[in-house]
Model the fold of this input.
Amino acid sequence: MEDEIIIKAKVLIGCDGVHSIVGSWLGLAEPVHSGRSAVRGMAVIPQGHGLKEEVQQFVGAGKRIGFVPLTKTDVYWFLTCASADKDAYLGGNPEAIKSEVLEKYANDLPELYQDIINHSDLSTLTWAPLMFRKPWKVAFGNLCKQNITVAGDAMHPMTPDLGQGGCSALEDAVVLGRHIGACIAQNGGLVPREMIKAVSNYAEERRWRVTWLVTGSFLSGWVQHGGPMVNFPNVGSNEGIDLTLFEVLGSETLGDNLNLVPGSEEDGGYFSRRNSVGAGIAGLGVAVALKRVGVKALVLERADELRTTGAALTLSQNAWRALDALGISQKLTSVYAPLERIYVTNVSTGAIQMIPLMTSNSRPITLHRKALLKALAEELPTDSIRFNCKITAIETQEHEGSSIVVVHLEDETVIKAKVLIGCDGVHSMVARCLGLAEPTYSGRSAVRGLAVYPQGHGLKKEVQQFVGDGKRAGFVPISDKEIYWFLTYSVSPQEGTKLRGDPEAIQREVLENYAKDFPEPYLDVVKHVDLSTISWAPLVLRKPWSVAFGNLSKLNITVAGDAMHPTTPDLAQGGCLALEDAVVLGRHVGAYVARNEGAVPRDIAKALSDYVEERRWRATWVIAGSFLSGWIQNGGSMWGLKFIRDAIFYTFIFPKLVNVANYDCGKLA
Done:
């Protein structure tokens, strides 16, 4: 201790708050800023406030204020407000806090409540950032180590939006007391080995309870807080991207009556009443769906040819249902065979688990990405895809009393359209226009490639997967001579970036570093890689709550594919979701077209809104499930997480997660 006293104990319980020394010692991640700050205070009205025993709460754009009578003279009040910087608060200056609240945040409140704030006891006023520990850090973190654990905010700091911080701390006290008490009663005292077990039992009983409280509190605050409406300034970019426009009004070089759908780095596409843009899975899928419902699409692609980025992908039952709706599944199922089962090998122990893959008519199929793109493109007229179209800016304007979208191309072409569908990938310009949060790094990167065996590989249609500490790899045959392989591993984005664009260095790093202790069959596959197919990329995702509660559309603008819901590949649902999007969007737009002759912005805005509401929660759960699947399977250094992976995950959790593949997006009409 600071006074040089040394205390020795059989058990240590860290109840040392949000920035816990004990929590740090256990390896728990530091709490993160929620994006909001809070002011709290006590108003004292000597003559009495006259309020009923009721909570009064006021919500506005990016703020929430509440009042709770405690006694006849005392009223507790609070304010939460958007705050980008966790350090940007007025702590230590109560007069400045009160002035800031009255002049900036409470100036539109009824006079009665402004008067309550004016009566604040300055000694009670505080301003602090709202912090929380990420739920997965609680769910899978080290909450105890031998005879050391944590309780209260040291374990589960959370935002105050459900009023559960103090409540859960009291629950901790009772649960911990019960386990320690039972241990003492059974052993006649503090037996160290048994005490370690009692502490562990306490932590496991609390783990999932507080994980859901942290999650629920954050979501509650996020929803109640609202925030400002999104507007659409002129958005520019130095990079060319692909878009999809609908019901184009005019173009300097493309002519009138175009309809475009924007596409992306991976999911390119434009669409309009007559056109769609972006030659990736989402963009081409949207264009085909629109064609099926009578809307011609022009696909604007920024590359100079059909994209073949990505060696292969796996399509599950939900994707094949979408391809059935688009009318092209037979093209692919006649060439590629379904997978039969998955074998998972623990590299450290040698243990092997076998996972069957559903029934014969619903098994996933791994295929060349270019084969899917070609199959989609073949359904479109030859003049439906225009290459070398690079978007530099997007803006909105008023036209005859309605909002239109104006898209600027690098060659100075200007296109005006009534609708814009952004299929422009992970770092979508259209998503930024809508105010969607940028995707965040998952903590892992991936290497992918295609191995070629000219004489044939002789393998069955089975997935071979290998798991180790902080890494996961696998391979799956695509044809008699080709094998798709991958590796995901935990790494800082800066460390991995140095490999980008150097296929030989990527292959060497995999063989000599990350996969050096993997079985020889995997190493042999990597050695046979076609270097032109090998790629390295960080795995990113849009936070689930950003999809659940974000602006996925506004008026005549929306997004599809990775532009809406970038997700990690751990459930192989990225391409599947994009195909679902295409069908759902086509169905809603088709219903609109059937009811209307000509594009009426108000009506089409309703169609786009219905589309995103149908997709919102589906995409949210897939993102969350994919992240959870990857987090557990990658293992890492935490013994608890590795235990869940090796003993529980593939038997009990994985089968439930892959149920996302049973989804049916429906038909186009």
Observations:
- The mean pLDDT is 84.
- The radius of gyration is 28 Å.
